[in-house]
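Notes from the 1:1 (GR / supervisor)

We went over the backlog. Supervisor wanted to see one worked example end to end before approving the batch request, so GR pasted a single chain during the call. The sequence is below; no edits were made to it. Supervisor asked that the structure be written out right there so they could see what the output format looks like.
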Amino acid sequence: MTVPGDLRELIDTTRYRLADPEDSGRAAVIGRARADLADRGCTVLPGFIRPELVETLRAQGAALAPHAHYAVERVNAYNIPLDADLPADHPGRIVLERGNAFVARDRIPADALIHRLYTSAEFKRFVADCFDLAELHEFADPLAGLCLNVVAPGMSHPWHFDTNEFTVSMLTQPADSGGVFEYCPNIRSPRAENLDAVRAVLTGSGAPRPQRLHLRPGDLQLFRGRFSLHRVSPVSGAAQRHSAIFAYTDRPGVIGTAERTRQLFGRVLPDHLAAADRAVRGDQLLD
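Structure output shown during the call:
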């Protein structure tokens, strides 16, 4: 028996028995996730969504995609202004082209599968346990907390770091070709930017070598995106690549910067302007 909003309505309970905190199957899934995150900053739970809901997941994403803010822009991996005062050899001076688009949270209806999953208390408790956190908060940003990432054919989501520490995502529609998630696990830490390693990846001049993930619709990905440089490789073929991004943090009140919000959504809200002088960050890393 389920109740409205019950996580069991959405996930494949034959593979992921998550409703009972004492279930040994739940503990095993969490144990594997923690080991993966510690070792390589990323874990994937394949087939997380019920098989009969995968087409609904895809169709809902396709219906949302036309609401994405689309603009080809010149950016850097830190999503800070290109004219920022940086040393000449800083990797933030390497200019990339960003051609992906985002559907903001305020365009996603509350009954969409991705919204139901994002706001589920059971799901948040599970994600917090996987990241070994006492508690987890939805990203306070009214636009970036939950969004749909759209990468059209001929475009890519270039190398970048996330603002929030803990990123959860789910592919809803794959590209015909390309659109591979690539990442360099834990290339920086809360105490060190490791600029030489970041520069090597951006210029293709040596180690570290990025890892590649071939995701399927309904797979759940947990990722330490603030510390792992990552991108979506160029998409080709006829189909767009769609993925839902669920942004969480271990501290309440985290809101994106006005600069980055304009890049991603083409607009800012009063919340972003008000947050500029009271930004909540747990480190001194570039954004």
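Supervisor's comment: Residues 7-278 form a domain with the Jelly Rolls fold (CATH 2.60.120.620).
Batch request approved.
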